[in-house]
Amino acid sequence: MTATPGDSVFRFFLVSKVCLGVLGNSVLFLLYTYSSLCRPQLRKPIHIVFMHLTLVNALTLMFQSMPYMISSYGVPCFWDDTTCKAVLYLFRVTRGLSICTTTFLSAFQALTISPAHSRWAWLQSRSTACILLSLLCFWTLNSIMYFFFIINTVESNCNSTVTGLEFSHPYCQAKIGIDKSMSFVPSIVTGDDLFLVLMHSTSLYMVTLLYCHCRRARHLHSPSLASQLAPESRATHTILLLVSCFVFFYCTNNIVTVYSLYTPEKLSKSKAVTVMLSSGYPTLCPLLLIKNNRMVARGTTFLSLR
């Protein structure tokens, strides 16, 4: 099959995006690991969450983009049902972990900058001790939830065509039918929505705290008060950028996905848009962290001078 100019452009942007995203997340993961193990003076509890986020983002990019990259080079369908279930299961689990970790990151930072007299003060001392337990719970929750959904809905489309209410990608398809998946879809959507609401709530709380702190500093004309939360303020701004980026790509991707789901004759046209949107957050996440994190900037400067 001869590739059209549109296919070539899509392949170029997809490969570039995946390489940039995987490389950026991998470099950040190694830098955070190095600082945690070899530079204890730079170690912070939140670095564990950043390490987990960069890891699941890199895995999400690989499992989500791999079939599109292979098919863009004209490789015919060769995946069986087992391969489809395994790859899509790993993609959905890592994508769910990305949602959970971003939400936890926002909540953790909101607790960190909360005043000592706030109603959430009792959680501040416990938040650090709960990091590993929370991440383990996220892995368990997503692994169990998506296992039953993938097993009951995903199959290879090598010997079939996409018809009706189905979502497809190059080698696999997920049939959305009353008999198989409608009992799982509401729980998945509800879970994502709950994390999204929590993400919004903690972000608004952080914005309110930063606004009140800046207004109090201007009112008192106190440079020391203005710089008191400088490090935490930078970290908070970074996390707010991550949350805004995630919400934009998540909502836009869902709109395009629903559109393609109910208009199967336009699925091929919207497929490229869907895959680029779904890989947008994992790709931009390391760039935002590198740009706004002093520890990462020092690490990259050190490595460039070696």
Brief overview:
This protein has 306 residues and is mostly helical. It has 11 helices and 3 strands.
Strand order of the largest sheet: 1-3-2
Inertia-based shape: globular
N-C termini distance: 47 Å
Report the oligomer: single chain
What is the percent of helical residues? over 70%
Overall residue-averaged pLDDT value:
78
- Judged by helices, strands and strand pairing, the structural class is mainly alpha
SSE run: HHHHHEEEHHHHHH
Let me know the number of strands. Answer: 3
Write down the Rg: 21 Å
Low-confidence stretches: none
- Beta-strand residue fraction: under 5%
Plain-language structure description:
The chain has 306 residues and is mainly alpha-helical. Helices cover 76% and strands 3% of the residues. The chain is built from eleven helices and three strands, in the order H-H-H-H-H-E-E-E-H-H-H-H-H-H. Strands 1-3-2 form a three-stranded antiparallel β-sheet. Helix 1 crosses helix 10, helix 3 (81-112) runs antiparallel to helix 8 (230-262) and helix 6 (185-220) runs antiparallel to helix 8 (230-262). The radius of gyration is 21 Å and the shape is globular. 31% of the residues are buried.
How are the SSEs placed, and which strands pair?
Elements: H1 5-38, H2 45-72, H3 81-112, H4 121-127, H5 131-153, E1 154-156, E2 166-168, E3 172-175, H6 185-220, H7 223-226, H8 230-262, H9 267-278, H10 280-292, H11 294-305
Antiparallel strand pairs: 1-3, 2-3
